[in-house]
Design goal:
26% strand, alpha/beta, four-stranded antiparallel sheet, single chain
């Protein structure tokens, strides 16, 4: 894992109109690292992600991606730099087939040695190969989540962001998503993930950030978080 930050946030503040949600966030994500963003509902996790990917302009502060300032940049420009998101709710297109989703969004960016081809994506999620001709609205929730992840990977991102990675999925499908994320980590994919299943995140995440009312209340390794279960009760409601 590289020690150089891939993404850096300093003094990040954001909100909606007169309602401020984020208050001075400072954090880094290093290349090859998996970082979990934790916190109860309404603590600012989704707002943080929206700000990182250009869906919301920060009110103050700076975000740099590989040294390039992206605070206030358009979402498409940030995506071209190599940031991909698996959004909450999946947002699959009902009138596109599985294959069309993966082909339409494919981009060979960043000079990756092993780009995500259609064959590799189908090998990662064999169920998508079986459903290749099905429309987005013909898929189950779990299949849509697999498609959303595969669609993001098809852009060959430097940073993969997952908002509510396993929300609303059956246990067997959640396990499939965790297996996929562990494989991506082994391949060196830098990832920021939001999910409520802390027990599953611990073996996956290198570091954890806990948000409380728009501020970073705690950050540390998974070993440290596992050893401090009082933090779970205080900030996560587990």
């Amino acid at each position: 894992m590289s020690a150089a930050p891939l993404l850096t946030c300093r003094g990040l503040e954001a909100g909606y109109g007169l309602s401020q949600v984020l208050f001075g966030l400072d954090f880094d994500i290093r290349a090859g690292e998996v970082v979990a963003l934790l916190g109860r509902n309404g603590m600012g996790k989704s707002t943080t992600i929206k700000t990182l990917v250009g869906g919301l302009s920060p009110q103050r502060g700076e975000i740099h991606f590989e040294g390039t300032p992206i605070h206030g940049a358009r979402a498409d420009a940030i995506a071209r730099l190599g940031v991909a998101i698996v959004p909450e709710g999946r947002q699959c297109f009902p009138n596109l087939t599985v294959r069309e989703h993966l082909v339409a969004f494919a981009a060979l960016r960043n000079g990756v040695a092993q780009p995500w081809t259609l064959a590799r994506l189908y090998a990662l999620f064999p169920r998508l190969a079986e459903r290749a001709g099905h429309m987005g609205n013909q898929l189950s929730g779990g299949e849509q989540q697999m498609l959303a992840i595969a669609r993001a990977l098809s852009t060959n991102p430097r940073l993969l962001i997952l908002d509510e990675a396993t929300e609303g999925l059956a246990p067997v499908i959640r396990d499939e998503i965790w297996r996929c994320l562990a494989l991506l980590k082994a391949q060196g994919q830098t990832t920021l993930v939001v999910d409520k299943y802390v027990e599953k995140l611990l073996p996956l995440a290198d570091r954890n950030l806990i948000l409380e009312r728009g501020r970073i209340a705690w950050q540390g390794s998974s070993a440290e978080l596992d050893a401090r279960r009082e933090l779970w009760q205080r900030y996560l409601g587990v």
